[in-house]
Design brief:
alpha+beta, Aldehyde Oxidoreductase, domain 4, five-stranded mixed β-sheet, 30% helix
Length: 766
């Protein structure tokens, strides 16, 4: 099928976007629009009083000033998931803090004015008395005895503690092991940076007592339900949420934020539309951040290098409040810690800490990149300690295909996987055997060269059910209504390919409606690489139902049995003849009611899918400066079934770029003394550019998924999961070869590498 599953169809969404005809939230300007501004705390922890609200309200053009007291009737921002088996005590997360702030950027007031400058004048006119309180930055510091408390009722700043596995058996294995390896690893905090910052427009229809919020999100329905039911305390049928074009989400736009409730309240109180758009620094101060784990990992091995047991302790920083999915992220990450290895027993302990910082939540991969980073760094450290090649140690300990389905020591059931196969292919593409010669050549030119491998597996694709509704239109096109939300992935093209498989339609004969709770009854949104594994299967199931209905109509028109009919390029014909009826003519038939031209179905995934793969990075380090550059990068992935090779490569490239950014330069830094966010703009927070990205050699070695009817495994997060450990293992390979440097934490900046080299030189001289 020319446009069907497996073909490299060019994205149909791109034409308006590259011509500047996209419609993002900031492009919308309802009549009488007011501009909103959030007033934020300059302190990490403080009590406060607002005394100058009346003065601010009197400024010309200012239509509204809201403080915590003005919206005391609203509910708190909820944490919607917990950790299974744990009694979660969720501290209050107010829409506006009323008397105490707990991180720099905490919201204390909201202003709406005719212009943004007038709103800024009002914010500056507010007289706020601050009484600074002791604060704590960093999860390890927060859990220390006598650390300042973020919440007075959370002793020791402990949010929760959860364990996996068998502690007794693990201790016994370690006691009897021939060799143990230990490594302490920091997975630093990072900030999600998408093209368009978050924005929201609130409108209120007093006659209907009805709200409309236009916002950039990864799913309109979940945000509507939270803001309506949990915060505004109204029925969701009193609110419509619309998501137009979105320039990236990466997990961070899944969540409900304070500003969405604030623009709704402001619209009702002023009787006018109210628009809020975050500037980039406000994004750093107000949107959830990612990662921020400190992990001590230990591996037990026998005298032949076989893995016997895994012991891991992780401290996860939650920030000051529990965001939407925050507790679940380190939990699901911990469950993936055994990775692709046959490790018989494990014991994993996760402690989550409150700190006086911006809340932490899901960021591309949501726990799985953190887990992959731990196990892949640990396996490389074990290989160095044993004097083995890292690929040889991996190959010895991979879960074998013959063991599938395989149940990990944390209870994950891998349905398929040929880990040694894709690693071998990646080595072949990377010319692994020729590396030593390349390393010698580089050394002669003052460069240190290293090669690093990471083999990963993740659990995803389990979100659902997702309902897909298809309708044949009068012009012969098919419209899909679905609750997934594209934030740049190319859903309209992907779903069009699935429709093409069923009906033979060209992409321009297919339309998609997303991001509108008034037109789409339900929706799970987009997250966890589930849109195609869940939504795509729903589209296929719905297409099959619609096809049966259309054949029934066509059978009457063609005076043939439905069994003798087939689809062909937007028409139905009698097989083996030239007798046919177009979709447009079917839609005009008198018996073609809306019910007969419409179908709906939903797929509920029976289990997660398990994408897996190998990344190999080759790097060069300038010994004089510590600057590292990637000279070669190879990826071989198993995504089950490839829907569109062109778009798949784009997804993998994007995720890999984010991982490379974290490995080499990205880091969120808070000052321990003041609690200030020191990296609150692109002047201070480094982002990868095109010059940092090598050419990526990418291919697939797919094994169809047994948990998914179409064989899909999901691919949206994979690049971010394999890249950090591959790059860091390459850097450590170079440093170990020359200076016996065993460990370095991300980001591997030039000053950090240079300092490690100097320390390595001193150690060798001693």
């Amino acid at each position: 099928m020319k446009f069907g599953v497996g073909q490299s169809v060019v994205r149909k969404e791109d034409d308006p976007l590259i011509r500047g005809h996209g419609r993002y939230v900031s492009d919308h300007a309802p009549a009488g629009l007011l501009h909103g501004l959030v007033v934020r705390s300059p302190h990490a922890h403080a009590r406060f009083k607002i005394a100058g609200a009346a003065k601010a309200r009197a400024i010309p053009g200012v239509r509204l000033v809201l403080t915590g007291a003005d919206i005391a009737d609203l509910g708190h921002m909820p944490c919607t998931v917990g950790v299974p088996g744990q009694k979660m005590i969720v501290p209050p997360y107010p829409v506006l803090a009323s008397d105490e702030v707990r991180h720099v950027g905490d919201a204390v007031a909201f202003v709406a004015a005719d212009t943004l400058d007038q709103a800024r004048d009002a914010a500056e006119a507010l007289e706020i008395e601050w009484d600074a309180l002791p604060h704590v930055v960093g999860a390890e510091a927060a859990l220390k005895k006598n650390a300042p408390l973020v919440w007075p009722d959370r002793p020791g700043n402990l949010s929760f503690e959860v364990t996996f596995g068998d502690e007794t058996k693990t201790k016994d294995v370690f006691a009897k092991a021939a060799r143990t390896v230990s490594l302490k690893i920091v997975n630093q905090r990072v900030v999600t940076n998408y093209l368009d910052t978050r924005a929201a427009i609130g409108e209120y229809d007093a006659a209907r007592d009805f709200y409309t919020i236009t916002l950039g999100s990864q799913g309109s329905h979940a945000i509507r339900d939270v803001i309506a039911k949990r915060v505004l305390k109204i029925s969701p049928d009193k609110m419509r949420v619309i998501t137009p074009d979105v320039g990236g989400g990466f997990g961070t736009k899944l969540f409900s934020y304070r500003e969405y409730a604030l623009v709704a309240v402001a619209a009702k109180k002023t009787g006018r539309a109210v628009k809020w758009v975050a500037d980039r620094t406000e994004h750093f101060l107000g949107d959830t951040q990612g990662r921020d784990n400190i992990t001590t990992a230990k591996l037990a091995l026998d005298d032949k290098g076989r893995f016997l047991g895994l012991d891991v302790g992780t401290i996860a920083d939650m920030g000051a409040y529990l965001s939407t999915y925050a507790p679940y992220i380190p939990y699901i990450g911990a469950a993936m810690l055994p990775g692709v290895y046959d490790i018989p027993v494990c014991f994993i302990r996760v402690r989550a800490a409150y700190t006086n910082t911006v809340p932490v939540d899901a960021y591309r991969g949501a726990g799985r990149p953190e887990a992959s980073y731990v196990i892949e760094r640990l396996v490389d450290a074990a290989a160095r300690d044993l004097g083995m090649e890292p690929v040889a140690l991996r190959r010895k300990n991979f879960v074998r295909p013959s063991a599938m389905p395989y149940t990990s020591a944390t209870g994950k059931i891998y349905d398929t996987g040929e880990f040694a196969g894709h690693m071998a292919r990646a080595q072949e593409v990377a010319d692994w055997d020729g590396f030593k010669k390349r390393a010698r050549d580089a050394r002669r030119h003052g460069k240190l060269r290293g090669i690093g491998v990471a083999t990963y597996i993740e659990a995803c694709g389990g979100n659902g059910p997702e309902t897909a509704t298809l309708k044949l239109e009068k012009d012969g096109a098919i419209t899909l209504l679905i609750g997934t939300q594209s934030t740049g992935q190319g859903h309209e093209t992907s779903y069009a390919q699935i429709i093409a498989d069923h009906f033979g339609l060209r992409p321009d004969q297919f339309r998609m409606v997303q991001g509108d709770t008034a037109r789409i009854a339900t929706g799970g949104g987009t997250g966890g690489s589930s849109s195609i594994p869940s939504g795509g299967v729903s589209v296929s199931m719905s297409a099959k139902k619609l096809g049966e209905k259309l054949k029934d109509i066509a059978a009457d028109a063609l005076e043939a049995s439905p069994r003798d009919l087939e689809f062909s390029e937007g028409a139905i014909k009698v097989a083996g003849t030239d007798r046919a009826i177009s979709f447009a003519d079917i839609a005009k038939r008198p018996e073609a009611t809306d019910e007969k031209l419409t179908s709906a179905d939903a797929f509920t995934p029976p289990a997660p899918t398990y994408p897996n793969g190998t990344h190999i990075a080759e790097i060069e380090i300038d010994e004089a400066t510590g600057a590292a550059g990637i000279v070669s990068y190879v990826i071989v992935d198993d995504f089950g079934v490839t829907l569109n090779p062109l778009m798949l490569a784009g997804q993998v490239h994007g995720g890999t770029a984010q991982g490379i950014g974290q490995a080499l330069m990205e880091e969120t830094v808070y000052d321990g003394d003041s609690g200030q966010l020191l990296t609150a703009s692109f002047m201070d927070y480094a982002m990868p550019r095109a010059s940092h990205m090598p050419d990526l050699a990418f291919e697939t070695r797919n094994v169809p998924c047994k948990n998914n009817p179409m064989g899909f495994k999901g691919a949206g997060e994979a690049g971010a999961i394999g890249s950090c450990p591959a790059v860091m293992n390459a850097i450590l390979d170079a440093l170990w070869r020359s200076y016996n440097i065993r460990h370095l934490d991300m980001p591997a900046t030039a000053p950090r590498i240079w300092a490690a080299i100097e320390e390595g030189k001193r150690s060798l001289r001693m």
